[in-house]
Amino acid sequence: MNRVSILLPAHNEAPRIAANIRRVCDTAQRLIASEWRGIVESFEVIVADDGSTDNTWAEIERASAGVPAVKTIRLPVNHGKGMALRMACQHATGSWVFFIDADLDIAPEHMADLARILIRDKVDAVLGSKQSHKTKTHYPWYRRIVSLGYAFVVRCLLPLPVRDTQTGFKLFTSAVLDAVCPRMLVRRYAFDIELLSIAHHLGFSMKQCPVEVSFSDKRGSVTLRNIYHMSFDTLSVFYRLKILHYYDSWQSKDYGAQPRVSVVIAVKNDNPYLRQSVTETLKQSYPNFEIIVLPDEPVSGYDPRVRIVPTGNELPAIKRNIGVREATGGIIAFLDDDAYPYGEWLKELAANFADPTIGAVGGPGLTPPEDSFWQKVSGAVYASFAASGSYRYRYSYDRRRETDDYPTCNLAVRKAVFEAANGFQSNYWPGEDTELCLTITRKLGSRIVYDPQVEVYHHRRSLWRGHFRQVTQYALHRGYFVKKFPETSRRFGYFMPTLFALGSVLGWTTIWWCMPLFWVYLAVMALYACVVLAGSFFSSPKLLVPTFIGTVLTHYAYGIYFIIGLLAPRLSRREERKG
Length: 579
Prior knowledge:
CATH topology of the largest domain: Spore Coat Polysaccharide Biosynthesis Protein SpsA, Chain A
CATH class of the largest domain: Alpha Beta
Helix content: 40-55%
Shape: globular
Largest sheet: 8 strands, mixed
Number of strands: 18
Structural class: alpha/beta
Strand order of the largest sheet: 10-9-8-11-16-13-17-15
Distance between the termini: 59 Å
Number of helices: 23
Mean pLDDT: 88
CATH superfamily of the largest domain: Spore Coat Polysaccharide Biosynthesis Protein SpsA, Chain A
Radius of gyration: 26 Å
CATH architecture of the largest domain: Alpha-Beta Complex
């Protein structure tokens, strides 16, 4: 072991970040010359600016100028401390990795204490603990109450061999982070809990070390909003670890594989969502990609790196076929104009294609935080297991899996596989992706993989203005596809909303001809209400009531139009036309 990596996540720390960087560097140099002599030869300090809105980045650049040991990373927007640490971990080269909050409320001199325990007890991680330190100076009472209460919740849900999980001073061996970080999903509130839970689950050992904390101006971080999100993220970690077994489904990927990716965006006209989609895609750190936008008519004002290919008035399937013909990449990443990448989207999807058996990769379409109230309700309905059932993974994080039907709002396909499938063979909208996926899996024998880390944000329709129109179109096509593509559409889950709609309407008649059956009907409806209520709560507790109402109405809308599609002899001539 010859190097130590020290990670400093920073957000709006302009007044003190430069001095704190120098203090960390000086402390590391002293330890190498004294206590770490013969163990550590060098160090690096990786400072990750998490989308600061003050002068933090300028101060980081000033402090790091001419200091080779300091590396800098800048996230364009605030993603949360967890995301900043994940990005920093990707650049860390040390065998020991320290996490230290950039405000230095815990003195960097404590690095010696943590390293001493790591060496002495031969453990994989050492966590700073303010609870076990003999002094409690400058530890506000409200933070102590929140900390103790949260520690009790964690012990009940996720028993760990340590009690204080939230102190921002930790030491890990690189082996822990190499195994854990690729599995992680939390970006913001429960990052520490997820990291430690996975590490413990994988068999890594850990201990605590008393550290003294001097809180300064952190009252703002203990808010009801943050407590709510922290609790919800912790429950999510529990669900993924104990119930879903998501972390066990994770598979390693080859991030060294960097094939050229062509991002293809079919759109009718220029619009603000398209501008956002292109702008966010251009921010991807992946080095080898292009963007092809396919509007009806020429548009201007885009970055020169974006290729605009006018197609005339065509439906999305035809546009995407044109886009693939124009593409120079070996991987085609289809993206809707109202969707945009989140995190390392291109890097994560490209890494999957190192496996030659994988022909396509999809990922979740999450509801953006900037969407309106009723858009978020629509997203919560889709993300509810009561509405989407086994297909909920399309709208939220879930375990990695194989699938045979995935929407093109976030779907990447090998160009060779796409061409072997003869592209989109029909012009259905929505639903052109069903036939393509069926060809890829059933006729070509290739695999389609859902990877929860291939994430995009997908703007929703407002519940009352666009959601139900979209739902009825999905239902109409799925009902028709039961006859057209029975291999992937003749599934019981697609029939359930229709059975519910018919049963809930006709069940009332039993009150006149079979009273015992009427009581059975009421019991079934009560059970249904409980399931929808539970699904609405786990989807979004804050939107419980509107999500409940939206889910029930979605079931009726889908159920009715599914029957219409099932009985339809054909869809519109334009959709039936070959691509």
